[in-house]
Amino acid sequence: MASPALICSTQPWEDLKAHVEDLKGTHLRDLMGDADRCRSMMVEFDGILLDYSRQRATVDTVDQLLKLAEAASLKEKIHHMFNGKRINSTENRSVLHVALRAPRDAVICSDGKNVVPDVWDVLDKIKAFSERVRSGAWVGATGKALKDVIAVGIGGSFLGPLFVHTALQTDPVASEHARGRQLRFLANVDPIDVARNLTGLCPETSLVVVVSKTFTTAETMLNARTLREWISSALGPDAVAKHMVAVSTNLPLVEKFGIDPKNAFAFWDWVGGRYSVCSAVGVLPLSLQYGFSVVENFLKGAYSIDQHFSSTSLEKNIPVLLGLLSVWNVSFLGYPARAILPYSQALEKFAPHIQQVSMESNGKGVSIDGEPLPYVTGEIDFGEPGTNGQHSFYQLIHQGRVIPCDFIGVVKSQQPVYLKGEIVNNHDELMSNFFAQPDALAYGKTSEQLQKENVQQNLVPHKTFTGNRPSLSILLPALTAYNIGQLLAIYEHRVAVQGFIWGINSFDQWGVELGKSLATQVRKQLHASRVKREPIEGFNYSTTTLLTKYLEATSDVPADPPSILPNI
Ligand code: F6P
Hints:
Radius of gyration: 26 Å
Strand order of the largest sheet: 1-2-13-12-10-11
Mean pLDDT: 97
Number of helices: 23
Low-confidence stretches: none
Bound molecules: 6-O-phosphono-beta-D-fructofuranose
Oligomer: single chain
Largest sheet: 6 strands, mixed
Structural class: alpha/beta
């Protein structure tokens, strides 16, 4: 018997389980023929259209999901989040990333203190600093302007900023502001990533931004020490003050590392790593590249969705509907994965970012009160921009496993191309696919249709598409900084809604700790074996064998080497 506190013990959960049976006889081909149903499954807000008519759901399903939301106290939980309640109970923290994009005069409190003025103090500092760097008022140790930025960070201190940077790169306004500048991201502790990032850069004209909430993450700190060596070996140790700045909640460790606290940009423990792109984590590197005004528009777009999320009734609330439908797909229809398919190359880093936001948030095995869950939470998120994905994994989506898909389209291309004599312009060609794929999945193709087309008999089973494969479509008016902010916030809140319904803590991440501590044990062993020739001890047969092979094959690695940096 599941605990009465769990959502699966409620009547709406039971009703939805039974309701799955009602849907067994329906096919999306038929559901899509009901125009009233389809009309009721479209929601518009601030230029964005969500069409969820291709979900395996009826109007009744949506009603029942809304009842589930009520049973899960969804409204109250959203309210608690916006009001600074410590909903991240295992870390005893509030969850206030919405405060990062609130206007200057907003009031959002954590522990009774309005945090918005602190947020704007940092934003103002970023604005002033980025303008000095961009204008050449802030110069490097040899008097040269700093035109290239390397942001060093991993996980939430990397994926969100990379997504936004990639999305802005071809926006006409943003790209004009970025002329002559480069922004790179060093995330992986793999020295190959160092080599790739440093290629073509010169310490004299580079600024390193070390981004780490904790300032203890092993990968980031080793990469930061590596780039500190890159700067100081070329320009002398005093150059670090001019060429390295930091973003962190841990300012004492920033100072200890050797970065002037005046050049540190703070954020707060109420900002989760994967929800931190709207803090200095994203705003500093992006402002250095694109100027603060562009990034401010990104924050405004996110704020618009925050307002919508916190104040719109549940049945017209885009993140709420998306979250409820994901719960429906995972917990009731049993679909374990979700494909995020933006029809825009500019959104190529969106799925990797949402992978962390979603999977680190909702991949949990116990309830917020620590009870083992009798149902699964989270889904396996993956994705690629269309049309590239169509020539890769769509085969499986069309004829293999059922994977609910998010199709994300953009009305106005950032970079239109027209060719004389072509039937359609290049963006129309892309969008033809965006409009066609959801119907291919929903309707499929029957053997009768194939027979009418005189398809060779033995190929009929191979060319049949069962259809009835759910998807939803999100149409954005354009892909400006503002729209990018909207899209980000929609997905952040959708993930929170899922977690609120499942009754888990979507804001902690204990699951990443075990691997980290085991790596510490291996690191100690590698050091002891290389430096003191100590035997391998304390590992199982498999790891001992692998380590032995690794150490034997690299016995020429010096125990106490001088600093060597990549050389390509
Ligand atoms: O992977 C675990 C994690 O803690 C993420 O949640 C976080 O985004 C990332 O590491 C980086 O952490 P930090 O910003 O403290 O370096």
